[in-house]
């Protein structure tokens, strides 16, 4: 059955991914329990069985629902485990179905948020253009206390500014992420990780959400990194 996935005329691989403006993940997002993803910008010719076949490539599905619209459909996919859901975001976001790139992000209730002002923030630099909030969060969600991930976008060009911030409830997890993931490949580049300069992650960096998404991906409160400032702050990032 897996072979038919790659032979289907609606699938073109590998996709040429352009930067897709993803909505922001909510503060307090529980990465340890979420097993559902939202799929947007789906071509009208995509059927529910095809959507199920595509997303089952990253793990067994508990459910799949497609809401068909005349111009652009959307849907929700439920996995049995969080790891498969995270993998689908990393590997299927931007995949072309019938020539149209789908948008894959975490699905959650808009009320699922908490104050993250007391969390520990790290700076992530040298992000490749195709990395979205969801991709960044999926990368760092291997650490249980990861609570938020944001790629900073240029509001005029709607392109990534090449850096972002990740928040953790645990200082130890934040330090481990800095130590373990600095220099690791994410997308087409090796990322740089360090403590965020205090005050660097503020209201000025809030990103606009995708108002067209059925799942409202909203902004949370501003965060000031609790940890020490350093020379790797975004304002010093070349």
Automatic annotation (TrEMBL):
Residues 199-238 are annotated as: Disordered. Gene3D superfamilies: 3.30.70.330. Residues 35-109, 120-198 form the RRM domain. It comes from the Eukaryota. Keywords: mRNA processing, RNA-binding. InterPro entries: Nucleotide-bd_a/b_plait_sf (IPR012677), RBD_domain_sf (IPR035979), RBM42_RBP45_47-like (IPR050825), RRM_dom (IPR000504), RRM_euk-type (IPR003954). GO terms for molecular function: mRNA binding. This is RRM domain-containing protein. Transmembrane segments: none annotated. One of its GO terms (biological process) is mRNA processing. Pfam families: RRM_1 (PF00076).
């Amino acid at each position: 059955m897996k072979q038919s996935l790659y032979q289907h005329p609606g699938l073109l691989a590998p996709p040429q991914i352009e930067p897709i403006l993803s909505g922001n993940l909510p503060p307090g997002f529980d990465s340890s329990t979420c097993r559902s993803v939202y799929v947007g910008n789906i071509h009208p010719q995509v059927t529910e069985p095809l959507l199920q076949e595509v997303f089952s490539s990253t793990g067994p599905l508990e459910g799949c629902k497609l809401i068909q619209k005349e111009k652009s459909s959307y849907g929700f996919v439920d996995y049995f485990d969080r790891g498969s859901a995270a993998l689908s975001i990393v590997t299927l976001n931007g995949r072309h179905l019938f020539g149209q790139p789908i948008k894959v992000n975490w699905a959650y209730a808009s009320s699922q948020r908490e104050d993250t002002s007391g969390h520990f923030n790290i700076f992530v630099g040298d992000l490749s253009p195709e990395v979205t909030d969801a991709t960044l969060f999926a990368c760092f969600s291997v650490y249980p206390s990861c609570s938020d991930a944001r790629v900073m976008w240029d509001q005029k060009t709607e392109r990534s500014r090449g850096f972002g911030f990740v928040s953790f409830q645990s200082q130890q997890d934040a330090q481990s992420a800095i130590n373990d993931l600095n220099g690791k490949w994410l997308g087409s580049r090796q990322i740089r990780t360090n403590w965020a300069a205090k005050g660097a992650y503020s209201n000025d960096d809030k990103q606009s959400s995708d108002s067209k998404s059925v799942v409202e991906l909203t902004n949370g409160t501003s965060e000031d990194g609790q940890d020490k400032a350093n020379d790797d702050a975004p304002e010093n990032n070349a």
